[in-house]
Amino acid sequence: MSIKTVAFLGASTGVGLSALNHTLAAGHKCIALCRTPSKLTDIISPETTPNLQVVQGNAHDTAAVARCLKKDDGTIVDEIVSTIGGKPVLSKLSIDDPLVCRKGMATLLEALAQLRRDGATGRPLIVVCSTTGMSRFGRDVPVLTVPLYHFMLKVPHEDKKIMEDSLAESGEDFTIVRASLLVDGATDKPIRVGVEDPKTGRESNAIGYTISREDVGKWMADNLLLKREAKYVKKIASITY
Predict the structure, then answer these.
(1) CA distance between the termini of the chain
(2) Which of 48, 88, 134, 172 has its Cα between 20 and 30 A from that of 230?
(3) Comparing C-alpha atoms, which of 226, 234, 203, 236 is closest to residue 24?
């Protein structure tokens, strides 16, 4: 097996932590950027997990992100996973940082550009976690959830739309994973996948209510990190139960 190096932005909890765990379990090297490293190292110890490197820093700091995107040989990592996001502020129908995802993507793309200007080579697959309810090609959520998505979640969705567009227009290899409403707990439920091309539209549908954070992370690892399914490259994958 060829050992990959995968960079993670936002792997301390939820989807990112699940994807990190499954990638490590498969024997690959992982570099995780954390504002507070102890949140991750209290769960996974680098001392007993030699393939894990934890870097302290903010996903909105170009220099910190760039440090996570280089392999030991100086080339760019094989894959990048970004699951950063804001904390809900229900009283304002918003999140604590309404620009968190768009700033994170701008920083990531600039870090890649900076590394290439400095001579580093590599073309990683960039995987980001987004959400359903944002398709430009028709409804992609159950009818009963439309008010939730289009009114209560308007602010974070606008942020994710800008993040998605920036990535799709960047010229990089990418997969945008739009998960339905996130719940907790790993399951054995089958996962349905809908595929959308950002330019030409829907190729297949998968409309559902929920999926767990743990199962989203496992799906990302299995289909995009451990093996790179070509049918999802430069596409949007909507996943749900």
Answers:
(1) 31
(2) 134
(3) 226
pLDDT at 19 over 80: yes
Please state, in angstroms and rounded to a whole number, the distance separating the CA atoms of residues 49 and 139: 43
Cβ atoms of 208 and 181 closer than 8 Å: no
**Three state DSSP letters for the chain:** CCCCEEEEECCCCHHHHHHHHHHHHCCCEEEEEECCCHHHHCCCCCCCCCCEEEEECCCCCHHHHHHHCECCCCCECCEEEECCCCCEEHHHCEECCCCHHHHHHHHHHHHHHHHHHCCCCCCCEEEEEEECCCCCCCCCCCHHHHHHHHHHCHHHHHHHHHHHHHHHCCCCEEEEEEECEEECCCCCCCCEEEEEECCCEECCCCCCCEEEHHHHHHHHHHHHHCCCCHHHCCEEEEEEC
Give the whole-angstrom CA distance, residue 135 versus residue 25.
34
